[in-house]
Design a protein that fits this description.
about 425 residues; alpha/beta; Aspartate Aminotransferase, domain 2; 2 domains; 17 helices; 16 strands; binds pyridoxal-5'-phosphate
Length: about 425
């Protein structure tokens, strides 16, 4: 072996995994077990007291999930990661470590529709208050900061319009406010953008999308960049104060630059309970092995389709940051030079009715509420994912009545274009 650091594609196949020490199995086995036998009573006590690391119970950790965690941490350039049952579970677990009732966090207004719901309603019932900012106006984040602000949340490539966020500019605001920057990197995946390289302190993913990549498993992950000082000012008591259930240890003092990932596991996952099934972890790991190949194909197909749609007479506009005419193209060149992702929107001259009719006439595209599948997908956000918003908020979040969202798969682009062509002329 040379001392070269492995490249991204090598990490996607190998990081975290080794042949199974007992059987020699080369693929990571599915450890389909709830619990693990202790060596002896002292071993059990040290695991429970966080004096040593090891397997106890699959709600808190599992060897298949551990390979997935190590792999995603390596791909994102973080110190540690925690796999959970869904992207939404990742968001709850992260916020539980950061916010006390009455606290606030600032979130970009352009977000996955489910996140807008989760932040506006469920989080409110925990006393966690979202304050919205405009990702195209960095000063709006600065203006939103108050003494109760505990975090800033953005998407790297934002749903549904595929716009690119200026991560470094938002990170500067977060640093100044003394709060961590959380980046939802679902639509980019670490193949396109590694938010930690641009100042993110925490990265979250829905593994359900491009990382798993095959539309067969729900999962989520939290990546700790190891960059944030949790003990400064006592603003993050979950991390800086003694934990009564762990003999009074202070997580940040004890675990240093992976304390946040530990807190998410031993407080969040332990108490809230959204554990990822090892079977899903296996499927997602298998998906990640081909992430670089799939993601490049997703992006190349998406660009060809965005170009086709831009020239079509029934289309009034295409919002794809990979087009040189797009207002996010400069940011795409800086943050996502290999391609601008595969999820984007376009608007139809025929408005709401044309959108509804297009989704019913497409044959190869599946009409459903997901993104990041090998298959191409379509949805009309105004009547589905963003239907809970009022008309003004729909337009502000990029989901106006005439907007159709595509998630471009890895099929032959000529077949996808032919399907769009027939549906647009129907
Ligand atoms: C799907 C998605 C989520 C939520 O993930 P689930 O796995 O469905 O819980 C969060 N953020 C983005 C950008 C998503 O696409």
């Amino acid at each position: 072996m040379s001392d070269r650091l492995p490249g991204f594609s090598t990490l996607a196949v190998h990081a975290g995994a080794q042949p199974d020490p007992t059987t020699g199995a080369r693929a990571t086995p599915i450890y389909q077990t709830t619990s693990f036998v202790f060596n002896d009573a002292d071993h059990a006590a040290s695991l429970f007291g966080l004096q040593s690391f090891g397997n106890i119970y699959t709600r808190i950790g599992n060897p298949t999930n551990a390979v997935l965690e190590e792999r995603v941490a390596a791909l994102e350039g973080g110190t540690a990661a925690l796999a959970v049952a869904s992207g939404h579970a990742a968001q709850v677990v992260v916020m539980q470590q950061l916010l006390q009732p009455g606290d606030e966090f600032i979130a970009a207004r352009k977000l996955y529709g489910g996140s807008i719901n989760q932040f506006s309603h469920s989080f409110k019932s925990f006393g966690w208050n979202v304050v919205w900012a405009d990702p195209d106006d960095i000063a709006s984040f600065e203006r939103a900061v108050t003494p109760r602000t505990k975090a800033i949340f953005i998407e790297s490539i934002a749903n549904p319009g595929g716009s690119i966020t200026d991560i470094e500019a938002v990170s500067t605001v977060a640093r100044k406010a003394g709060v961590p920057l959380i980046v939802d990197n679902t639509l980019a995946s670490p193949y396109l953008i590694r938010p930690i390289d641009h100042g993110a302190d925490i990265v979250v993913h829905s593994l359900t999308k491009f990382l798993g990549g095959h539309g067969n498993s729900i999962g989520g992950v939290i990546v700790d960049a190891g960059t944030f000082d949790w003990s400064k000012d006592n603003r993050y008591p979950m991390l800086s104060e003694p934990r009564p259930e762990y003999h009074g240890i202070k997580l940040h003092e004890t675990f240093g630059n992976f304390a946040f990932a530990i807190a998410c596991r031993v407080l969040g996952l332990r108490d809230l309970g959204p554990a990822l099934s090892p079977f899903n972890a296996f499927l997602i790991l298998t998906g990640i092995e081909t992430l670089p190949l799939r993601m490049q194909r997703h992006c190349d197909n998406a660009k060809a389709i965005a170009e086709f749609l831009s020239g079509h007479p029934a289309v009034s506009s295409v919002s794809y940051a990979g087009l040189s005419s797009d207002k996010y193209n400069q940011l795409a060149r800086k943050y996502s030079p290999k391609g601008a992702g595969a999820v984007f929107t376009f608007s139809l001259k025929g408005g709401y009715d044309a959108g509804v009719s297009l989704v019913s006439n497409l044959k190869l595209f599946s009409h459903l509420a997901n993104v990041g599948d090998t298959r191409s997908l379509v949805i009309h956000p105004a009547s589905t994912t963003h239907s809970q918003l009022d008309d003004a908020a729909k337009v502000k979040s990029g989901a106006g009545p005439d907007v159709v969202r595509l998630s471009i798969g890895i099929e032959d682009k000529e077949d996808l274009i032919a399907d769009l062509e027939q549906a647009l002329s129907a």
